[in-house]
Amino acid sequence: MSIIRVMQISDTHLSPRTRHFRKNNELMDAPLKASDHDLIVHSGDITLDGVRFSEDFELCRDFFTSTGKDIKFIPGNHDVGDNARLSKPESVNGSAISEKRISKFLSYFGTDRWSVDLGRWRFIGINSMLIGSGFTRENEQYVWIDEQLASAGGRHIALFTHQPFYIDEPEPAELTYWTIDPSGHEHVRPLLNDPRLRLIASGHLHQGRSRQHGTLSQQWCSSIAFTTREALVPEMGGTREVGYMEHTFHDDGRVETQPRSIEGFENTYLDDVMDEVYPKY
After folding, report:
1. How far is it, in rounded angstroms, from Cα 199 to Cα 212?
2. In the chain, alpha helices (H)
3. pLDDT for 116-137, tens place per residue?
4. Can you give the pTM of this predicted structure?
5. How far apart are CA 171 and CA 224, in angstroms?
6. DSSP secondary structure string, 261-276?
């Protein structure tokens, strides 16, 4: 029986405008360069504030290119923008998602969705921030997801997304900052209900958490950069420690996940440096 090994990193929040969070990312450089994983995934918030500052993308592109690895990226809210119903528009320097901001991400990382087949597995990465946007690209992504399901055959499926689809209940009643816009659930229901789906791996919440729902494993990857206290991000049953994840995929559909850390990682709390790294606009 063959196995597939995947490294997942998330929420690196790099910027040339601050040294905050740089140490942890620099410590991550060696494991990335030495990686013999079959796939490396970055599940979003690559930049500190790429929606406003292109130099954040330039630094991140150069940093990850220097590893020499073929890393698969998907965008987070700090890369392409927040849900427009929860944030101010780009026209007033707000953080809302826009087609211009998506285009900027694409100019640096090429794509905001991807599919990779390895052994008995299909690995899919989506742009969760598109969901609920109303952009043409949102509907194109739904069509693309359906195509991935139709062509997967007997492969098991692992999904990578920046935001989790839900915290504990599969049908959220309202839109929140923490999860994918529930207006999109109907469109992705074939994916979520597909028995071949064995993993949903996300980032965004800066907490590490593992839940098993039947044959479906749901994993939240910690941030490389920082964590938060409950005053900033409510308690959701996760561990508030920086780090990354390693997933092992078996031919029979089993998934094993291990949280990882590196000696020297600093468990910075965003609450303590918020005004420095995210000044109010």
Report:
1. 9
2. 22-34, 54-65, 77-80, 99-109, 136-151, 185-192, 270-277
3. 999 999 999 999 999 999 999 9
4. 0.97
5. 29
6. --TT----BHHHHHHH
Assigned domain for 74 exists: yes
Angstrom distance (rounded) from CA 155 to CA 69:
25
pLDDT at position 251: 97
The two structure tokens encoding residue 97: 């998602």
Distance CA 90, CA 235 (A): 30
Q: Structurally, how many domains does the chain consist of?
A: 1
Residue 280 lies in a domain: no
Tokens matching residue 155: 């492969």
pLDDT at 169: 79
* CATH code (residue 83): 3.60.21.10
Query: Considering the domain boundaries, does residue 281 fall inside one?
Result: no
Which amino acid is located at 214 in the chain?
Answer: G
Residue-wise pLDDT for 228-274, tens only, equals 999 999 999 999 999 999 999 999 999 999 999 999 999 999 999 99
User: What confidence category does residue 108 fall into, taking pLDDT thresholds of 50, 70 and 90?
Assistant: very high
Sheet holding 216-220, edge to edge: 114-118, 121-125, 156-160, 197-202, 216-220, 209-213
Strands 3-9 and 244-250: antiparallel
What per-residue confidence (pLDDT) applies to 281?
64
What tokens appear for 133 in the block?
């946007």
CB-CB neighbours of 168 under 10 Å: 10
Q: Does residue 19 lie in a domain region? A: yes
The answer to whether 2 and 119 have CB atoms below 8 angstroms apart is yes
Tens digit of pLDDT for each residue in 68-80?
A: 999 999 999 999 9
Q: Find the domain containing 83 and state its range.
A: 3-275
